[in-house]
Each structure stands twice: as C-alpha cells, then as structure tokens.
C-alpha cells in the first residue's frame, strides 16, 4: 500500500513540475488552437465551434485578442461576427454583425485569450493549495503504512 501511494505521489509531483515548467508552451499552444478554432469556425455544430461559443458567452469576450479577429475568418465574410459575441441577443442583428463599426457597439470587444489565461492563473493558487493538502495526506498515509508494516513484521514472532 505504501509503495502504491508513493508511486501516485511521484506521478502527481512530476505532473505538477512539468505543468509549471511548460506553462508558457501551454499558453502558446492554447492561443494557436484558439486561432485555429476561429479560422475553422462554422455554423454546423462541431465541438470546436461549440467550445468557442461557450467561451465567448461565459467570459463575455470575442475573438482571440479582440473582436476584430473575426474579420479575418471565412465565417465573417458569410455571416459576420457570431451571435455568441453579442452583449444582448435581442439587440444583435445579422446586418449589424457584418459591419465591424456597428458590431463594435453590440459585441464584447475584449479578446478571449487574455481572459481565459487570467482566469486560469487566478484559480492556480486554489488548485495548488488543494494539491498540497492531498500530497500531505498521501505522505501521512505512506508513513502510517510503513509503520503498520514494521509493527506487523516485528510482532510476527511473538505470537503464541
């Protein structure tokens, strides 16, 4: 049991170190994937388009850096900026979404990349605290399992 807990502890420790060391690569990869999702965005309900819509609706953002990122997409030339960028769904017409000047007043102007990364970074302290707490319980479990193993081994020859 102590060996299994030690193995799990080491795996979690390695994952945490790798995540910390490669955090900048993770951000860069996320930004490029978000740009790719915008480029391939379409009206059919594929999971990448749904993810973009969910991020934009939830975080009240539009595009990667700002709403004008949509102007470089194929979707914009056909239908304008997606409705998931609208501040108010009732006050957002397709005609307004095709005109970048009118759309600026109707959609969220902030980009999603900064909001997603800042949200993740603000939650990292909570994740780190919980992970540290779990690691402490794992270490206590390893120590207690070793003590129990030693106690059983030492008392094996004293049984009557």
Automatic annotation (TrEMBL):
TM stretches of this protein: 126-152
Annotated GO CC locations: plasma membrane
Signal peptide: 1-19
Keyword Membrane: yes
Record keywords, A-Z: Glycoprotein, Membrane, Signal, Transmembrane, Transmembrane helix
Classification via Pfam families: Tetraspanin
Key word Transmembrane helix present: yes
Coiled-coil portions: none
InterPro entries on file: Tetraspanin/Peripherin, Tetraspanin_EC2_sf, TSN6/7_LEL
Function as written in the Swiss-Prot or TrEMBL entry: May be involved in cell proliferation and cell motility.
Protein name: Tetraspanin-7
Organism, scientific name: Sakesphorus luctuosus
Recorded name of the encoding gene: Tspan6
């Amino acid at each position: 049991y102590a060996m299994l807990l030690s193995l799990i502890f080491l795996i979690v420790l390695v994952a945490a170190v790798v995540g910390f060391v490669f955090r900048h690569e993770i951000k860069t990869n996320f930004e490029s994937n978000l740009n790719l999702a915008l480029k391939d965005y379409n009206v059919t309900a594929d999971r990448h388009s749904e993810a973009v819509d969910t991020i934009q609706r939830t975080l009240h953002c539009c595009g990667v850096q700002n709403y004008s990122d949509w102007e470089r997409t194929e979707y914009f030339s056909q239908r304008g900026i997606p409705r998931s960028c609208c501040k108010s769904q009732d006050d957002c017409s397709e005609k307004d979404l095709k005109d970048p000047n009118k759309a600026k007043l109707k959609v969220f102007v902030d980009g999603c990349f900064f909001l997603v990364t800042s949200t993740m970074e603000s939650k990292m302290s909570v994740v780190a605290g919980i992970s540290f707490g779990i690691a402490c319980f794992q270490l206590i479990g390893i120590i207690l399992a070793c003590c129990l193993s030693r106690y059983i081994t030492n008392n094996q020859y004293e049984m009557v």
